[in-house]
Amino acid sequence: MSNTPVTAFTDIVDTVAHLVETVADDQWTAPTPCSEWNVQQLVDHLVTGQGVFIGVMAEQSTSEGSEQPDGTEPTPASLKAAFRESAGALVTAFAQPGALERTVQAPIGAVPGAVALHLQTIEHLVHGFDLAQATGRKALFDDTAVERETEFARGLVAQLPPAPDGPFAQSRTAPADAPTIDHLAALLGREITG
User: Which residue, 45, 72, 105, 108, has most beta carbons within 10 Å?
Assistant: First the structure.
């Protein structure tokens, strides 16, 4: 069990990194529960988001895309390397002294660093769920961390415009005996079956 939000985030990112690193060659174009993206687009989205939040925590703007230096789209191999590298840099940014207490300019506006950490933790949990579903694996996240982020997400969803104008699909309900991560995924609009 993780002791702090940053160590919990570190564990979550490591779990997602393992999922990314073990995507089979024929799975990169597979659809995901996040209907906008296939596996490669989903991983690219996570890498881009990590870059944005590294900039947020460093109080500087960052590039919104993850194109290669020559302007081409990222390859699966480059995405695997980029995910691990940017994830490590993001963990380091959140772990800096005072990082969670100061106000930062996130894409949703000015928020405490602790809220920025929640946003990225939820992002990695839900897209880790998406990635695991798309590749036929399980995302083994710590239930205590997932429950903490589910409570935060409930408050966040209540403050945001509902679908289709809001950032999340319509909330759904997971079966009562479903894994904890399924309840968070359902809250953020994923269809939970079985």
Answer: 45
